[in-house]
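Handoff note, outgoing to incoming analyst
You'll be picking up this chain. Sequence as last confirmed:
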Amino acid sequence: MTTPVSGTGSAASTPATTTVDRPDQMGKDTFLKLLVAQLRYQDPSNPADSSQMMSQTAVFTQVEKLEAIATQNAAMLALQRSSSAGALVGRVVAYTDESGETKTGAVNSVRLATDTAEATAYIGGVAVPVARITEISASLV
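Most recent structure output, in case you need it:
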């Protein structure tokens, strides 16, 4: 007897990337440009306080480290998704096809995710994005 595991994902998903692009926030390049502009246009008779400069340099270092952490997290998420996709081989799954119809079949193989493409399961010769899988049987075929 098999016990189905229901999925909660939608029919479409976005693959994880190893870069983080947030146009609504300043990045390290913008911060560095502001810091250089501040140094360039400061009043020579009243230079910037050295403690302020150290503080700004520390903030710049924090921004760099946070970007590195975000990149590592995205890479780990992509690896986790690939690992999860590999566990589907030999399992009976239900998925939603292009027309919205639910179909069932055994997963023959899986193409792992890359930076630009999500993982794909091959079910009876049909390529199915892993995000379209809605149910996974608990037992192997």
